[in-house]
Amino acid sequence: MYHRFVIFVCLLAFAVILLGAYTRLADAGLGCPDWPGCYGQMTVPASEDHVLDKAYLEQRELEPAKGWKEMVHRYFAGMLGLAVLIIAVWSWMRRRRHPEQAVWLPTFLLALVIFQAALGMWTVTLLLKPVVVMGHLLGGFATFALLVLLALRTAPRKPPATTGRWRHAAAAALIVLVMQIALGGWTSSNYAALACLDFPTCQGSWVPEMDFDEAFVMWRGLGVNYEYGVLEHPARTAIHVTHRIGALVTFLFLGWLLVGMLRSGSGLAGPALLLGGLLLLQVALGIGNVLLHLPLGVATAHNGVAALLLVSLVYLNYRLWRPQH
Question: Which of 152, 264, 272, 314 has fewest C-beta within 10 Å?
Fold first, then answer.
């Protein structure tokens, strides 16, 4: 029962990632100017006449469609937080009867989800500050990955352990992927996804005009509204091109890893093929985002497949690093 509940929460976390990506990409991150409610209420007002505190309207004009996108995301995130709390409490209660029950991972997950809630609040109050938005995205991915790890550890039937020959390469691949996900978050939060509308060149050139000095400034002044971005085009281009280079590095490194595992007969052909399939799909979605000018469905799927790539590497590392008995 406990393991099944953890699996359910994994699916819920994945849904929250997709909803968060959809909300951000639909430019609804500030659909509600306050937090945790929307215009001082726990549902989205139907019109400005239904807003009880008119002061909120001075901050932002009411757009019910965007408000509902944001609030649905918050509802699901709230359910996820409650579910992780249940897992943490349940884990400590089970430890009384099962001393081998892991409790520190569920406790850390609870702390992470609380911090995620704070990042969600700061995303609104700091007006989509890119470093906060990127941190919120990484926190969501980390929550999903750790829940999958918890599901693997609590499964009644453990997958067979395998040789540790590729364990350091798999750990490095995980780091490379996380760095690329962070670059993707920085690209999205700075509205740089459409800085290049052609592929493989950018603006018809292999070396377009770029401003790296401004592109990666992590913290700027308070009170700036970052909706739709504040960077000039050369800085956005620098971010976009860096993300492309990171994608190439990630593709080559993960491709080398999965080919090596397949050729060495490591017993991980299934996970390696899954990783390869997701990797090719992610590359196709990334190119589609550029050539199709960032359609909402493709861009959201790009975030979802990134999350699946992450947990596939978590599974791979779990198999490689688990002690053999």
Answer: 264
Residues 6+ apart with CB under 8 A from 82: none
Distance CA(202)–CA(324), nearest Å, equals 49
**Residue 249: which H helix or E strand, with range?**
helix 233-264
Where are the strands (E) in 133-205, listed by range? Answer: none
Helix 2-25 / helix 64-95 crossing angle, nearest 10 deg? 160
By annotation, the residues acting in catalysis are 70
Q: 256-303: per-residue pLDDT in tens?
A: 999 999 888 767 888 999 999 999 999 999 999 999 999 999 999 999
The token duo for 199 is 């592929």
- By CB neighbour count within 10 A (0-12 exposed, 13-18 middle, 19+ buried), where does 115 fall? middle
Half-sphere exposure of 258 (CA within 13 A, CB side): 22
Closest residue by Cα to residue 251 from 220, 281, 210: 281
Q: Are 13 and 144 in contact (CB under 8 A)?
A: yes
Two tokens, residue 160: 């067979």
Per-residue pLDDT of 22-62, as tens digits, reads 999 999 999 999 999 999 999 999 999 999 999 999 999 99
